[in-house]
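Dear Dr. H.,

I hope your travels went smoothly. While you were away I took the liberty of generating a structure for the chain from your last submission, since the lab meeting agenda had it listed for discussion. I wanted you to have the full record in hand beforehand rather than looking at slides cold. The sequence, exactly as received, is reproduced here:
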Amino acid sequence: MTTLPDRSYTRSEKVLRARLLMQGARQAAADADTSSYDRRIEAIDARAEARAQLVRAERETFLREQATAKARQKFDEQRIRDAAKKQARDDKVRAKAAKKYGR
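The corresponding predicted structure, in token form, is as follows:
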């Protein structure tokens, strides 16, 4: 099973985050304040993390529903086989009785 990433960025978030990182690095190299860049990057990261959690939750729900459906199908197939076996046994008993009693 594949693991999902901790964060899920949109295309525009990736571009904006990269641009902010570059601008922040430039500011840091000039010994200037980078707190505004850091806050914006953290906000993007928080949105991406929330989106990834939502995707994980949806995937877990999907997998759980899929497993339930598979188990239900297997159970139904077993019930059908059991019913067919019972019918075959009953037919065999009826045929034997009919042969014995001449019906």
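Two observations you may find useful: DSSP finds two helices and no strands in the chain. The first helix runs from residue 11 to 29.

With kind regards,
E. W.
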